[in-house]
Amino acid sequence: PVAQALTRKLVEGDTVTGNLLPKHAGGSDGAKVTQVSYLGADYTPSGGEIVISLLDDDTPAQVYATITIQENGHYTLVTGDAFNTSDTHVDVLQYQTLDFDGDLETNNTLTLNVKDINGSIVFPELDTLEDTVLSLGGLQVNPGDEDQGETVTEIIFDNSKLAGGSLTLDGNPLSLNGDGNPFLSGSEIRLVASGANPGSAEPNGLLEFHPALNQSEATTSPVLDVTATIATNVGNDTVEDTKDITVTSVADAPVWDDAASTYDYTTREDAGDLALTLEADLFDTDGSESLTYQI
């Protein structure tokens, strides 16, 4: 058999499959797995397979995954949704392979790099009408899990992506950080009561987006660009995501120009044509509307 040094990258919560005897690993004779060693213990097949419980770094250690290895090298690894890990947990299994001529290879390894599950931003529907305030109720930050004490401490919005719009919490403008971006922190953030992943947080109050006056998708493209800071036992992490805001155009009533218009006229029957002086202006001047007259 040909010695193997295999590496598998995955994220906690994953279920993955693989083969400890990839193509040509068994040599020309073919081979099988006869023993697996893990944390000082040796395991041999029972009923054609080996089942091993993998342990995390906790004290005392907890089972974070189960790997089932067939004699033909095929394996299935099932990991738990959350376990204590310093970003990436590394595990090493050593195994022996025996070909059908009786040759033994003992220098085989499978290294597992199990990364802490990533967080995410959960967006609500972001559709509104021109000049209409949009509620952002349902916006949540999911830290992934709480196995490292993950806590959402800050939610920042990129001001340059709001296309002139603004954000308020319970009617009050959000504070701006040193980069001029509105943000939520401290008591402005609360844990989601139910129906979300553990540790998920949301604005503590009614968060609203106010589109720029008279601006719509015809001329601008606002985006909710969110960066959340997640504090952990091993340092801070961030999770970022964006979603487009759709602001549907609405035609505003035109405004009569009283100074340039005459509304009352006096004439006589059969007196001929009468010149009318009327002028109206668009209230919305972003280029999304046009003005026509009908008398």
How is this structure best described in words?
The protein has no helices and 26 strands. The protein is mainly beta and 295 residues long. Strands 1-9-8-3-4 form a five-stranded mixed sheet, with no helix packed on it. A five-stranded antiparallel sheet has the order 17-18-14-22-23, with no helix packed on it. The protein has a four-stranded antiparallel sheet with strand order 2-7-6-5, with no helix packed on it. The chain starts with a strand and ends in a 14-residue tail after the last strand.
Radius of gyration: 33 Å
The helix count comes to 0
Number of strands: 26
User: Helix fraction?
Assistant: under 10%
Order of neighbouring strands in the sheet with most strands:
1-9-8-3-4
Please state the average pLDDT score.
89
Structural class: mainly beta
Distance between the termini: 93 Å
Spans of at least 5 consecutive residues with low confidence: none
Order of helices and strands: EEEEEEEEEEEEEEEEEEEEEEEEEE
Give the amount of beta strand, in percent.
over 45%
Report on the biggest sheet.
5 strands, mixed
Q: What characteristic shape results from the CA principal axes?
A: elongated
